[in-house]
Amino acid sequence: MPHLIPPQPDLPDGTLHVAIIMDGNGRWARARGLPRTAGHKKGAEAVRATVKASARLGVTHLTLFGFSSENWRRPADEVNALMGLLRIYLRNEVDELEREGVCVRVIGDRDRFSDDIRALIATAEARTRDNRRLVLTVALNYGGRAEIATAARRIAEAVAAGDMTAEQVSEATLADHLFTADLPDPDVLIRTSGEQRISNFLLWQIAYTELVFTDVAWPDFAEEDLADALRDFRGRERRFGAVSG
């Protein structure tokens, strides 16, 4: 039986959801005179380390921006290398994730992925579905605007079919039609490598999320960097639009 995460006293429902934009693989490689693919390989090691560190540090939900819908515009050899790394991760890591009590989820449009990748995703999700120590969500072929548009289209179809009225559509209705409908909104969003933008990631979900930007490139991101980000987060007052107490 996996060790359950202790309740977080600063979060009333006991959850702690960390989202990460994993940026800087290419710059990390370029600074070392290496091909970009070397940065992606090192970044995959950082994913493994961050999942383990998250469980140790009391994170209950970890959401990683793995591959955006815009990333298909990159050179074909780089995209192929990223798909190869995704295959390796899904094949080689699921056994350990299952043992460690990690539930694996993938959000995004899977239609553009090859049949074997879609099958590997489905297998990973099925094998880890009942795990509760950490919910690991990976965004693949994901874009925040497209997610909201898809949700709006589904709601419009429901209204057209007479399953609900336009007057019944609320913020909660839209949230219920997102890929993340069964996840809590992120408490903190971390972006690595010094950039300070959201890049079309979880646009609806981060309305009241605390943002932490670090100059550390993703391949160098380690447990102490995650711990520093969580200390920063816990030192902030979250008012959700209200005034200070």
From TrEMBL:
Family matches, as InterPro entries: UPP_synth-like, UPP_synth-like_CS, UPP_synth-like_sf
Annotated binding of substrate, by residue: 24-28, 36, 40, 68-70, 72, 74, 191, 197-199
Residues annotated for Mg(2+) binding in this entry: D23, E210
Acetylation recorded as keyword: no
Keywords: Magnesium, Metal-binding, Transferase
The keyword Ribosomal protein appears for this protein: no
Record EC number: 2.5.1.-
Assembly, per entry: Homodimer.
Task performed by this protein: Catalyzes the condensation of isopentenyl diphosphate (IPP) with allylic pyrophosphates generating different type of terpenoids.
Family: Belongs to the UPP synthase family.
Protein name per its UniProtKB record: Isoprenyl transferase
Organism field: Roseospira visakhapatnamensis
